[in-house]
Design a protein that fits this description.
The chain contains eleven helices and five strands, in the order H-H-H-H-E-H-H-E-E-E-H-E-H-H-H-H. By secondary structure, it is α/β, with parallel strands linked by helices. Among the domains are: about 10-80, Arc Repressor Mutant, subunit A (Orthogonal Bundle); about 95-180, 3-Layer(aba) Sandwich (Glutaredoxin), CATH 3.40.30.10. The chain is elongated and about 115 Å long. It starts with 19 loop residues before the first helix and ends in an 18-residue tail after the last helix. Bound molecules: FE2/S2 (inorganic) cluster. FE2/S2 (inorganic) cluster (FES) binds near residues 141 and 142. FE2/S2 (inorganic) cluster (FES) binds near residues 103, 142 and 146.
Length: about 325
């Protein structure tokens, strides 16, 4: 981690002012925050000042921003010196931020530092032609393709002393460069190409679930469609039946009279099978019972007892 100090006085401009367009942009950023919270816009304004001032933040810009946001200049200075995204020294047209954190260090970042020192010079110095400057920074989040460097807004990965030296030469002479991995790999895939998930069947769905899942899904959809059709037909039939019944009821009772009564509605009364046998009619009504008693022959009555002779008494 480099020491974060303002550039020496001899390179500091005497004043700084936003351009009209940037002033307008700054006002829009400030307006995003509630009254009394304008200081929240300090980072966007520092970023815009750096962009306007050839990639670094001079002391005059810090003071201008402090006045605009009604902040103490020291508060703005604290922010500018804390975040490494703000350059406090002049930078080259191509500003190289070389990652020196552990994964990149283990993959050869030390050798890349020597290339920078050899081609550009010490950190935070600009080449005489103004084209290049460099700085060692902490992890830039591309460790999987270590070692790497950021040049302005692009990442260059899988660097070696040879391809890095060639890259610096291309940048210096304005030749086109290819950001990203500098070896034959796409994105962050393993060197030499992917080793897993290579089976095409993984991507056409044929290995999902057991058996022929596509046929199974087709069958399930067909069964669901048939069930829905059967349900709709049953509901239509029930509705038609209900409408017919309602229409019949509306037509009046005469129509009901005209209809012959079904025989089954009046079951036949049971008849006695034998005159000698007690009729079941006797059990139905009192009158029928008395008729049955009358019909019973007299012999059924017990014989009268003869009067006893007086002598026996
Ligand atoms: S360690 Fe270098 S990018 Fe993470």
């Amino acid at each position: 981690m480099s020491v974060r100090r303002l550039a020496p006085d001899q390179v500091q401009p005497t004043s700084f002012a936003f351009t009209a367009a940037n002033e307008n942009w700054a006002d829009q950023q400030i307006a995003k925050y509630p009254e009394g919270r304008q200081a929240s816009a300090v980072i966007p304004l520092l970023w815009k000042a750096q962009e306007q001032h050839d990639g670094w933040v001079p002391r005059a810009a810090i003071e201008t921003i402090a006045r605009k946001l009604a902040m103490a200049p020291m508060r703005v200075m604290e922010i500018a010196t804390f975040y490494t995204m703000f350059n406090l020294q002049p930078v080259g047209e191509h500003f190289i931020q070389l990652c020196g954190t552990t994964p990149c260090a283990l993959r050869g970042a030390e050798a890349l530092k020597k290339v920078c020192e050899d081609v550009i010079g010490p950190q935070s110095t600009v080449t005489a032609d103004g084209k290049l400057s460099w700085l060692e920074v902490e992890c830039l989040g591309a460790c999987c393709n270590a070692p790497m460097a950021q040049v302005n807004f692009d990442y260059y990965e899988d660097l070696t002393p040879e391809n890095f030296r060639a890259l610096l030469d291309d940048l210096r002479h304005g030749r086109p460069t290819k950001p990203g991995p500098q070896v034959e790999r796409s994105g962050s895939e393993p060197l030499g190409g992917g080793e897993t998930l290579k089976d095409p069947a993984l991507y056409d769905g044929t290995v999902i679930g057991a058996g022929d899942w596509q046929a199974r899904i087709t069958e399930q959809r067909k069964a669901a469609a048939e069930a829905a059709a059967a349900k709709a037909a049953a509901e239509a039939a029930a509705k038609a039946e209900a409408e017919a019944a309602a229409a019949a009821q509306k037509a009046g009772p005469t129509d009901v009279k005209a209809a012959p009564a079904p025989e089954a509605a009046t079951p036949a009364r049971p008849q006695p099978s034998d005159a000698q046998q007690p009729s079941s009619r006797a059990q139905d009504t009192p009158s029928a019972a008395s008729d049955a008693i009358k019909d019973t022959p007299a012999k059924a009555a017990p014989p009268k007892r003869a009067a006893k002779p007086k002598s026996e008494e």
